[in-house]
């Protein structure tokens, strides 16, 4: 499925991924943990209104975007994963704008890191939850820039970078393995040619094969969910409802119950959705990801980053882009991240 992508298209995909993540975060946040059944009509009307240019409202981003931009800025500056710099950026961003929706457990990590002057940047996260660490989706939600910047790297080196970035806040295997899966999904979408026929079963099988080499056999929630998605497509169940997906794959703040859902949302957006009359596959991805309910901003943000990496910026409706806070700044960072990645690619590092 992977192919050589022309540089002009690759830049479009970088921009699509970063903007797609922002859109999912901004548009998903107002629906976070709303009851799916009562909010679905509201969601349909809301997105349709936005797509038709019927709103001038600007939607703010959350901690998801704050941390994603911190990762991008650090990569642009250092041309590699610098965990101490990342930890400082995460903490600085939190104390600058603590109202962005940060979870209390990650705040504890930030406060401990600051109090110890970043002496051991991995220790605060390692000590959480009786030293088992967090298995939430906070590492996965911010990982897209690493997939973009390191698209030229082998999976082995990419996995190392993802773990280093993740363990600052998420020490549990399910926390950083979820980030690894999200990173691999973004990379696979980035490397795919959207002008050619897409095989969702092959896409899932390739991800599952890679995760089988990463997860422990007796504890492999991501492989199990990917197998579940594969079965959905093999049984021609593409019309399965968002409520059923929430039950089968999950929709909460844990990585294992949100990353697979984001991946499925990307795949589901490729075909029409009966209750949401829209011809644009990116918009359908965002709609479905939010309609699953639960942690909507993070699930939609992750789904948007995968879809954006696949379709590129040209396929993302400007009506959605313009409704997001910080859109121009995020797009500018995407350009800089692309330039930094190209510089490293030419050096043949990784």
Automatic annotation (TrEMBL):
It is an enzyme of class 3 (hydrolase). The keyword NAD does not apply. One of its GO terms (molecular function) is metal ion binding. Its main location: nucleus. Monomer. It comes from Larinioides sclopetarius. GO terms for cellular component: chromosome; mitochondrial matrix; nucleus. GO terms for biological process: DNA repair; peptidyl-serine ADP-deribosylation. Binds 2 magnesium ions per subunit. Its EC number is 3.2.1.143. Its cofactor is Mg(2+). Pfam families: ADP_ribosyl_GH. It catalyses: alpha-NAD(+) + H2O = ADP-D-ribose + nicotinamide + H(+). This is ADP-ribosylhydrolase ARH3. It is found in: Chromosome; Cytoplasm; Mitochondrion matrix; Nucleus. Belongs to the ADP-ribosylglycohydrolase family. Keywords: Chromosome, Cytoplasm, DNA damage, DNA repair, Hydrolase, Magnesium, Metal-binding, Mitochondrion, Nucleus. Mg(2+) binds at residues 62-64, 295, 297-298.
